[in-house]
Design a protein that fits this description.
alpha/beta; Helicase, Ruva Protein, domain 3; Zinc Finger, Delta Prime, domain 3; six-stranded parallel sheet; 8 strands
Length: 343
């Protein structure tokens, strides 16, 4: 049974638990929230024991096989999670999954998760079995035209409504990053007293924020105000801001700047209009495009992408320190490139 994400939420909120679930896709927020919804329902249904297997080797499949065949020590239902990540099951793993699905009953609940699966993986026997015989949900990146409606549903969870203009403005700011979008909506729902959130509320929530935020940090860097930028980023760190949001904001800005610099338009005003730069930021963006070449901006973007990999655990490093090094490079501090790790 294949379900959309929203349909899964409805199903687990009011229905009995199914024996097997398969969640996969490349959009981490929706994938995480699907799992959270299922875990809450399992807990509410009296499932008190939870086992998690991160599949790394054949030995992990042996452990899954043993546990799936064993009874709970307390003779109670269990939630057994099998996390594939981006790895495909080998022959033995496929056999274990097939055994689980074929023997599925109400004794235990199985949640099988995977990341992005390529076309080859989706043609395999194990995938087709999971897709056809479990409650299957794909967590996909939303298309640009889908994001405003998603934002509206998100606000509805807090008893609020987003005006079309407000939803479009948030969608434009977050550029498809659902984690940032979710946090933006939650912040607005907490700050705005009225039932309807309009575009003025969105703008004011940014301009009137009492604490430093990632947008102020980015603008300070673009203004070449290193002292203020470092003060802001250290404040963000102390406040417990997730570095992934800071890196995302930097990467988004550098990506657009690099694209604008490479556009080759005769007039900066023309290229800024093409990329929908707000009138209040045109002087700031124009100064940056005069200060850096397209190649220099691409090099800065490459370093931002490297930090993003560090934040997500793909490489070793200290992301907050790397963010400060990137700040030094953007502000053209002499010798800053020597602080950049090889990547």
């Amino acid at each position: 049974m294949q379900l959309q994400v929203d349909r899964l939420f409805e199903r687990v909120a009011k229905g009995e638990l199914d024996p097997t679930y398969f969640f996969y896709g490349d959009e981490p927020l929706q994938l995480s929230e699907c799992g959270d919804a299922l875990r809450r329902r399992a807990s509410e249904s009296g499932v008190v024991e939870r086992l998690v297997f991160d599949i790394e080797s054949a030995a992990d499949w042996e452990a899954v096989s043993a546990e799936s065949s064993a009874m709970s020590l307390f003779a109670e239902r269990r939630l057994i999670e099998i996390r594939l990540g981006n790895r495909k099951p080998d022959k033995h793993g496929s056999a274990v999954l097939e055994s689980i699905v074929s023997r599925a009953s109400l004794d235990d609940v199985f949640l099988i998760t995977a990341g992005k699966l390529d076309a080859g993986a989706r043609k395999t026997r194990w995938f087709k079995m999971l897709e056809g015989q479990t409650v299957c949900v794909v967590a996909r990146d939303l298309k640009a035209q889908q994001l405003p409606a998603w934002l509206g549903r998100r606000a509805g969870r807090f008893g609020k409504r987003l005006s079309p203009e407000a939803a479009a403005l948030i969608a434009d700011r977050v550029e498809g990053n659902l984690l940032a979008a979710a946090q933006e909506v939650e912040k607005l729902c907490l700050l705005v007293d009225s039932d309807i959130i309009d575009e003025h509320d969105v703008i004011n929530a940014v301009s009137d924020s009492a604490r430093f935020d990632v947008y102020q940090f980015v603008d300070a860097l673009l203004a070449n105000d290193l002292q203020r930028a470092l003060r802001i980023v250290r404040g963000l760190r102390e406040e417990g801001t997730e570095p992934v949001l800071v890196v995302w904001a930097l990467g988004r800005e550098l990506r657009q700047l690099a694209a604008m610099a490479a556009a080759g338009a005769a007039s900066l005003s023309v290229v800024m209009d093409q990329y929908r730069v707000w009138s209040t930021r045109k002087n700031l963006i124009g100064a940056v495009l005069k200060r850096f070449s397209a190649a220099e901006l691409m090099a800065l973007l490459a370093y931002a992408n490297f930090i993003d990999t560090v934040v997500k655990g793909g490489r070793a490093g200290a992301p907050w320190d790397d963010i400060e090094v990137l700040a030094l490079r953007i502000c053209a501090v002499e010798g800053a490139e020597k602080l950049t790790p090889a990547h």
